[in-house]
């Protein structure tokens, strides 16, 4: 078991960092580009485990994928993936797996099997599988109904009206939307439950529009007419979730951190994190990127917040809350239990190891801030966001050790180098 010791950082911290491209945008753009006619260039696309796994899966269906220094070139399959009979391994990439399941259902050829890590095969897929089957997809779960591994026979998607539950994940809706332009009949997706993580659906609609596809939304329904994505030269933003760790460093240590390549008008919901930190006592400014600062004399204060729109920010918010005055109540995130690990249980367990009182709720956490945060040996559960959040907490503790630090490769392979830069 490899381990990474985190040295405490004497503030005030003054730093400027850059973070890699957005994982969510990269994976949406990959699907649109793979379905389009012609060659797309995805500038500053994220190169990490998840998008690389998706890119290789798309290449296995006939898309032409070329990795260059800071771009991905994708030659599309014009709406018709070729199923090669191969097994497709998607790691623990939930977004990539849901998107690829819908994309490959458009294809034809020799049936393929989509699978992943043990954890990915425990994560929910049933609402998406049933919706694709209602659209005529030929899918069969090989071990347990509603879960990977799944055999995909392809044959195209009829379209028409389908009802979809999105209380466990917004990715089911994003996956159907992304392939909606290629169903034979107009697609109508009616939501049958409250939608979690709504900003990711807005991101899907924005990227689809960038690639030339229009979606109409009315009340709880989405309408997608048959149309075609256009190949694009597309500039991918920096990842706002990855930026959160370094903005949190400024909040925890005191001082100022600028994420130089995160735009003020980001398409990503998680760009809201700077605003959340300002509610806790930090200052925000925008110029060359986004800057968060906190005067060491101004204590952090706890907040009561519904994080249902921003699930990936919860581990980062939780470690900031560990040092905030009073209680921080995080609500509205029952779907955190379906991520790379059960993040509510994981965050509560690991914070308690650091001497931080935590009450775990069905849908959130109550965290009692303390000035006496202890270092501990942090189990990361092979979850990149647990590793990165607790690494940042380690800046204000003594003796924090992160186990299995390599799991950051999922979304932020150079995280440890960027963290090291804070000590310069
Ligand atoms: O659509 C996306 O790119 C994502 C959606 C979110 O999942 P849920 O919609 O399941 O909350 C988020 O946790 C994930 O990291 C990326
Ligand atoms: C949950 C995440 O990703 P995914 O659902 O794509 O595995 C994440 O990046 O935090």
From TrEMBL:
Residues annotated as binding phosphoenolpyruvate: 23, 94, 123, 171, 343, 385, 410
Gene: aroA
Pfam families: EPSP_synthase
Species name: Thermodesulfatator autotrophicus
EC top class, as a word: transferase
One cellular-component annotation, GO: cytoplasm
EC number: 2.5.1.19
Residue stretches making up the Enolpyruvate transferase domain: 12-419
Protein's UniProt name: 3-phosphoshikimate 1-carboxyvinyltransferase
């Amino acid at each position: 078991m490899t381990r990474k010791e985190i040295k405490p950082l004497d503030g005030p911290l003054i730093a400027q960092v850059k973070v890699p491209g957005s994982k969510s945008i990269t994976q949406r753009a990959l699907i649109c580009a793979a379905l389009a006619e012609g060659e797309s260039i995805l500038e500053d696309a994220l190169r990490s485990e998840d998008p690389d796994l998706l890119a290789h899966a798309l290449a296995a269906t006939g898309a032409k994928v070329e990795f260059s220094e800071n771009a991905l070139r994708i030659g599309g399959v014009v709406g018709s993936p070729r199923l090669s009979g191969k097994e497709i391994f998607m790691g623990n990439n939930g977004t990539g797996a849901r998107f690829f399941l819908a994309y490959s259902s458009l294809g034809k050829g020799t049936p393929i099997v989509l699978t992943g890590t043990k954890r990915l095969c425990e994560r929910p897929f049933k609402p998406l599988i049933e919706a694709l089957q209602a659209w005529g997809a030929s899918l069969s779960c090989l071990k347990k109904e509603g879960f990977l591994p799944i055999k995909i026979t392809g044959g195209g998607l009829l379209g028409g009206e389908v009802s979809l539950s999105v209380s466990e994940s917004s990715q089911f809706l994003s996956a159907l939307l992304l392939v909606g332009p290629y169903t034979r009949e107009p697609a109508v997706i009616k939501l049958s439950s409250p939608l979690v993580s709504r900003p990711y659906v807005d991101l899907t609609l924005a990227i689809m529009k960038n690639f030339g596809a229009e979606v109409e939304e009315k009340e709880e329904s989405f309408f997608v007419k048959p149309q075609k994505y256009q190949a694009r030269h597309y500039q991918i933003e920096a990842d706002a979730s990855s930026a959160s760790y370094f903005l949190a460093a400024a909040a925890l240590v005191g001082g100022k951190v600028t994420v130089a390549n995160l735009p003020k008008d980001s398409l990503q919901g998680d760009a809201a994190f700077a605003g959340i930190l300002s509610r806790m006592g930090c200052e925000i400014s925008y110029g060359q990127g986004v800057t968060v600062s906190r005067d060491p004399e101004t204590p952090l204060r706890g907040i009561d917040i519904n994080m249902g729109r921003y699930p990936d920010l919860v581990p980062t918010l939780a470690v900031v809350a560990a040092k905030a005055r009073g209680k921080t109540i995080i609500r509205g995130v029952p779907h955190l239990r379906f991520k790379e690990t059960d993040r509510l249980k994981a965050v509560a367990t690991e914070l308690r190891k650091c001497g931080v009182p935590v009450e775990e709720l069905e849908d959130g956490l109550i965290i009692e801030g303390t000035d006496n945060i202890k270092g501990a040996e942090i189990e990361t559960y092979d979850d990149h966001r647990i590793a990165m959040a607790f690494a940042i907490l380690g800046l204000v503790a003594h003796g924090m050790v992160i186990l299995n630090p390599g799991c950051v490769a999922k979304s932020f392979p150079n995280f440890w180098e960027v963290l090291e830069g804070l000590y310069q």
